[in-house]
Amino acid sequence: MTSQAVVTGIGVVAPTGIGREEYWEATRAGGSAIAPITRFDASKYRARLAGQVPDFDPAERLPSHLLPQTDPMTQYALIAAEHALDDAGIIPEQLPEYAAGVVTAAAYGGFEFGQGELQNLWSKGGEYVSAYQSFAWFYAVNTGQISIRHGMRGPGRVIVTEQAGGLDAVAQARRQVRGGTPVVVTGGADSALCPWGWVSQIANGRVSLREEPHRAYLPFSREACGYVPGEGAALLIVEDADSAHARGARRYGEVAGYAATFDPPPGSGRPPGLERAIRMALADAEVTPQEVDVVFADAAGVPDLDAVEAAALRAVFGEREVPVTAPKTGTGRLASAGACLDLVAAFLALRDQVIPPTPNVTRAHVAHPIALVGPEPVSASLQTALVLARGIGGFNAAMVIRRAA
Amino acid sequence: MTVRGPHAHHRVAVTGIGVVAPGAIGTKAFWELLTSGRTATRRISFFDPSPFRSQVAAECDFDPVAEGLTVEQSQRLDRAVQFALVCAREAIADSGLTLGDVDPYRLGVSLGTAVGATMSLDREYCVVSHRGKYWEVDPERAVPHLFDYLVPSSFAAEVAWDVGAEGPVSVISTGCTSGLDAVGHAWELIREGSADVMIAGATDAPISPITVACFDAIKATTTLNDDPEHASRPFDARRDGFVLGEGAAVFVLEEWERARRRGATVYAEIAGFATRCNAYHMTGLRPDGREMAEAIRASLDIARIPTTAIDYINAHGSGTRQNDRHETAAFKASLGDHAYATPVSSIKSMIGHSLGAIGSLEVAACALAITHNVIPPTANWTERDPECDLDYVPVTAREQQTDVVLSVGSGFGGFQSAMVLSDPEWACRD
To answer: How far apart are the first and last CA of chain A?
Structure first.
């Protein structure tokens, strides 16, 4: 039969914390890192809030030769990948050749690095463009850099589906595990907190223009007014269950089910694809809606899209009040890293039997018939979680995870 | 979703092809170009290349409105998306598929691109920064669809809307192997039962100052500026770097039995696909070609085809000194003596290196080689390099029974990919 894919390692660089436990402690406590942008002068832009990774000295965490050739998002990816491998107790060089692969999701590429080189090109001339520009900004860079740093020579892949990418990458990692690659480093990393990246993000019309950090990103709320962008990386080690068992590895849980769908063209009158993705992912996991203990929502923060998600949950779960949470209201939406960070929160929720809160969104303000957890954590018996993600443009992904037996 | 065991794989047929290439809009013109051995490389005309080290490119003479796009699309969409839409429509028409007969839930899109909307980003940056005057760029000068340039998943979304796909849709971006990997990704989805029909291929339109400058900086591109028509010289002793190109190829990939039931013409079967990372260097290649050789072996394993059955290798053949040596070593390592008996050619000699797109253009060439039993040549190959001592099909196309074809790709980041295609009748003949 098809082999099981389990998660044995977690690495996180998030606005609410660098490192798995720092992130989780803040997330459990309903911490929020949404604040005015300090990375550049954002005063002239309509939106001024973001979830920024706390300042750190990259030279303390990465080899010096990598610093001039990496965008911040690649630095986050490299740190998170190293944490995840350490957490799993894996030293890739000690594995058989080609036994370890890398699958990452990307959305923006290394946009800050790219702005620097575009600036050099247009202000000074082509001869001032960095020799690293040929790869430092492109979407494939994180898979390449992780593979090189850790000597991982198995299959590589890079998927771009905006925010859905965090789940699509993990699903591809599971596919590769099933195809015979026992260990895959997977997840997403993104950051575009430079003026050029910021203007490009704001252009999508969904970014919140509110000034108060606690009122800017309120998905499912009557006050929903868009989302706050964030940055960061979340990487997992997805491993063949037998291989994990053989080396006595600790497992966070299993990637049990997944599906991806795409929305019909705007104006077609056909139903959106999220509900179908949920049903297919549950079927893939052989799980009934009654068995789902918690949902980590996509939580777009845009009223129409919140309504679509709430309706999909209602259609699948019926009257049953399955708890729904969105800890991303404390980090902002992290593009390709976002859904994988939700997976991290979901695995840790299963581990600790606690549902992390949705910072800033009070239950009294919820505008849709869903059981949103609200700003306080909830202790619960949790075996199975559903994680949802949507990428701008119509990408839907749903993933079912199960607690380690 | 149909859940199947690992041994119940579906077979995958190529039933439609659409191409936008330098010197050739449309599949028919593309094949004529390749088999004529003509080159479509020239001095860059999109901007004044004189400040740059490399001034040669393979450009498409492409009029989006003449090719069926609206004026609105021609203004809003990045050139690479325009290529992809035109190719997708040609591929569907070519396949004879009636989209109304396909369950939209079982129809997906897998589109490769290495550098996304580079051309638009370069142009718009110049605008919002007042030609690099301001780091804090001017939001008032930003075009409303800038986000679609920021995130290249918009490319796949445009194609999905155009064809009505509501199944799995994604962009695959693995640098210069994107074109093989996007087709490989689609192959994986049909094979496992997640889709019945995939619109799969790749596109790139990178001929822009920032791209030319970044390859200048690492001396990866050619300096044969005085002789643009002969500047792309894969495997030739005088090669000195690749020629930047642009273009797209998109396929209709179809579950085998479905294609047979509707009586579709099948160009080829995608029989195997595998990728490996070299974990060596972001832009460098190990001279022994070890990981590419492993990707080749793995793809043949999956295809259950012996190395001796390979009739033709469509090489990555970029024309950089390190690539052509790396690849030649990989063919010898994976095929042994059969490498010396197998024709190897690089169509980049004629249409340049369109980064993420080229892998799909090369798959198109492979499918057409199988259909027509003709092997496209390596143009400009005149002088043997002792490190490249295989049969590179110099200058002139070769008529030859071509049933099993290997296509390989290699990209920045260390990506190495291999795909095996076979004639739909081949297994029966054997």
So the answer is: 19
**Per the CB < 8 Å rule, is B283 touching A135?**
yes
Residue keyed to tokens 């396909």: B102
Contact, B384 vs B261, CB < 8 A? Answer: no
The fold for domain A5-246 equals Peroxisomal Thiolase; Chain A, domain 1 (3.40.47)
Q: Which residues pair with B244 in a beta bridge?
A: B57, B353
In this structure, CATH architecture of domain A257-403:
3-Layer(aba) Sandwich (3.40)
Q: Which of B176, B230, B326, B388 is catalytic?
A: B176
- Averaged over successive runs of 10 residues, the pLDDT of chain A (405 residues) comes to 87 98 98 97 97 96 97 98 98 93 98 97 96 96 98 98 98 97 98 98 96 98 98 98 96 98 94 98 98 98 98 96 97 98 98 98 93 95 98 98 92
Which listed CATH number (3.40.190.10, 3.40.50.300, 3.40.1260.10, 3.40.47.10) goes with B270-423? 3.40.47.10
Which residue from B160, B192, B411 is facing A262, i.e. has the nearest CB? Answer: B160
Which CATH number fits the domain B12-261, given the four candidates 3.40.47.10, 3.40.50.2300, 3.90.226.10, 3.30.565.10?
A: 3.40.47.10
Q: Phi and psi at residue B154, in whole multiples of 5°?
A: -60, -30
What residues does CATH 3.40.47.10 cover in chain A?
Answer: 5-246, 257-403
- Report ipTM (2 d.p.): 0.98
Beta pairing class for B107-112 and B169-172: parallel
Residues forming a β-bridge with B135: none
Show me where the domains of chain B are located: 12-261, 270-423
pLDDT higher than 80, residue B419 = yes
Whole-number pLDDT of residue B229: 98
- A195 touching chain B per CB within 8 A: yes
List pLDDT tens digits, range B162-217. 999 999 999 999 999 999 999 999 999 999 999 999 999 999 999 999 999 999 99
Q: How many CA atoms lie within 13 A of B109 on its CB side?
A: 39
Same fold, B12-261 and B270-423: yes
d(CA A120, CA A142): 23
- B316 in catalytic set: yes
Supply the mean pLDDT for chain B: 96
B214·A129 Cβ contact <8 A: yes
Q: Which one of the listed residues B10, B185, B230, B353 is annotated catalytic?
A: B353
